[in-house]
Specification:
Layout lengths: L11 H16 L3 E4 L4 E7 H14 L9 H13 L4 E2 L15 E3 L46 H8 L9 E4 L6 H20 L15 H9 L18 H11 L15 H14 L11 H7 L6 H13 L3 H19 L12 H13 L9 H19 L4 H14 L3 E4 L19 H25 L5 H14 L1 H7 L3 H5 L14 H4 L15
Antiparallel strand pairs: 1-2, 2-4, 3-4, 5-6
Helix pairs in contact: 1-2, 2-3, 5-6, 5-10, 7-8, 7-11, 11-12, 11-13, 12-13, 16-17
């Protein structure tokens, strides 16, 4: 059985659990073993199970080569507890698995977990709040933006500025946005972008959006210092000074000077243990229990580096500001310690990077109800965080700019012309894509010339306009849209039909008026006989 990438979505932890069990049952060699003068068919030693599962996890792109032997043993203990495996006497239910020569086997029944029933629902699009609608009971004037069929009178008022005439108009201000309105816009657009990046039809199965605090998103986006670290409004939620000093001591070793130089061997290990103990006392991980499923879903995007970065950027914006700040400081310290060659080893048996992941991963991500793959999932996420913490823990600039532009548009002044039931300032399209020249010409002809031709025909056939006004409007139309005008009036004669000349009686011409003065009369041939 070939391993497959389990992408983002609901119940990802359950899908991964079943995936690993299927791979383990298919890949674990089974053979005959003897124990205490008795033979057992189709079983395996505990140490053989550790070797096999460690190799499977390391080659699986859902977990990767950073999985340790100790983590594999813990997972096999959970396999024994959940009856994925049993000892040769059929006993299971306890986590007493050890990396030794004890014999185990697979039970005959399948231990796969069922998936919860997914509610049938169509593709959900997160709705943005409509701030154009006035609140009940307010008398504030409001102009709705809507499409309108433009007649000749409206067209003339819109385009008369070209000949120096400006119709009466007035400025209409949209309803002023409150801070609560802006926060709701941030929440709606942030969640909508997260749903799009994760590629989900709905966020409901991985996140209860009602529990997302819009104030936290805005504070995380704007209340930052020059280093991009969140600044807290409530100073009582700051990390204690002694913990900050200890973290700076190891992160900047050996150049940090707030603390006196160590006077005994192993000082740096004691400082590290103090930091681990402090974060271990927290009642909830830094990424919170509520967002566990979201971050587990993001793990399915790690093969697509840029998408994973963006998804984690947005997800970390949802955190409470105090959690986000602690995460920023902790992950930065972990990354610096891992790459600091001047820092003495903090463990005799474990590499520094592995020690960072093992020591803090559970305090960064875990579920409220302890799950079987918590440790492996959190280790995978923390490793990715350490490698990309500067990008992930910064505010996504594209999201921020798009939200700010949307807010500015909602606050923009509108112009209302007298007699026109529409806004002069129309919002730009949300998305656009490049098209070919031929397609553009076709759209321009089909989308603009036909309505303009109808408008020209209305001006030409309007009997209520005086001749002077009609000529004036036709001249203006000809100047603005010469191609449309040429199709309707290809020759001057076709235009002259609109303005027939009136028949006037001419006075009789006298014979003497034809003669030039003082010119003698000459006989012409018509007088000859």
């Amino acid at each position: 059985m070939e391993p497959r990438l389990v992408g983002p979505g609901p119940y990802r932890a359950t899908r991964l659990w079943n995936e690993i069990i299927e791979l383990f049952r298919a890949g674990m060699p089974l053979r005959k073993h003897r124990c205490r003068f008795k033979s057992y068919e189709r079983c395996f030693k505990a140490s053989e199970a550790v070797d096999c599962l460690l190799e499977l996890l390391g080659s699986n792109q859902n977990f990767g080569p950073e999985v340790t032997r100790n983590q594999t043993i813990k997972l096999l203990k959970k396999f024994l507890k959940n009856h994925v495996i049993e000892d040769i006497k059929g006993r299971w239910g306890k986590e007493d698995f050890q990396d030794d020569g004890h014999l185990y086997r697979f039970p005959p029944s399948s231990p796969l977990r069922p998936y919860p029933k997914k509610p049938s629902c169509g593709k959900e699009v997160i709705k943005f709040p409509d701030w154009n609608e006035p609140k009940a009971g307010t008398s504030q004037e409001h102009i709705l933006v809507k499409s309108v069929t433009m007649n000749s009178e409206m067209w003339y008022k819109r385009h008369s500025i070209a000949i120096g005439e400006v119709p009466a108009c007035k400025l209409v201000f949209r309803r002023e946005l409150t801070q609560a309105n802006i926060e709701d816009i941030w929440k709606s657009m942030t969640l909508s972008r997260l749903q799009k990046v994760l590629g989900l039809d709905s966020l409901d199965e991985v996140l209860d959006t009602k529990l997302v605090n819009s104030k936290h998103i805005v504070q995380n986006a704007y209340n930052v210092n020059k280093q991009g670290i969140v600044t807290l409004e409530d100073k009582s939620k700051e990390l204690p000074h002694w913990i900050l000093s200890a973290m700076k001591c190891l992160a900047n070793w050996p150049s940090y000077s707030d603390l006196k130089q160590p006077t005994y061997s192993g000082f740096e290990r004691d400082v590290f243990k103090t930091i681990v103990d402090y974060f271990g006392q927290m009642k909830e991980p830094l990424l919170t229990f509520h967002f566990f499923d979201v971050f587990v879903s993001v793990l399915g995007l790690l093969q697509k580096h840029s998408k994973a970065i963006e998804a984690l950027q947005i997800s970390c914006l949802l955190l409470p500001p105090e959690n986000r700040k602690r995460l920023q400081l902790l992950v930065r310290m972990m990354a610096r310690i891992s790459f600091n060659k001047d820092l003495p080893p903090l463990s005799e048996s474990v590499r520094t990077r592995t020690l960072m992941v093992q020591s803090f991963s559970r305090y960064i991500l875990c579920s409220k109800d302890e799950m079987d793959l918590d440790e492996l999932l959190s280790a995978k996420l923390v490793s990715f965080l350490m490698d990309n913490y500067q990008e992930i823990l910064s505010v996504p600039s594209s999201l921020k700019s798009s939200i700010e532009e949307h807010v500015v548009h909602l606050q923009r002044v509108q112009i209302k012309y007298a007699g026109a039931d529409t806004d002069a300032t129309l919002p730009p399209p949300s998305f656009c894509h490049q098209i070919s020249t031929d397609e553009f010409e076709y759209q321009r002809a089909a989308g603009s010339q036909e309505p303009l031709a109808a408008l020209l025909e209305e001006i030409a056939m309007n009997k209520e306009l005086s001749v002077k006004d009609k000529k004036k409007r036709l001249k203006q139309f000809q100047k603005s849209y010469p191609e449309v005008y040429r199709v309707r009036f290809p020759t001057p004669e076709t235009e002259a039909v609109l303005f027939p000349e009136k028949n006037k009686q001419k006075p009789p011409i006298l014979m003497w008026a034809l003669k030039k003065p003082f010119q003698p009369f000459h006989r012409t041939r018509s007088f000859r006989m």
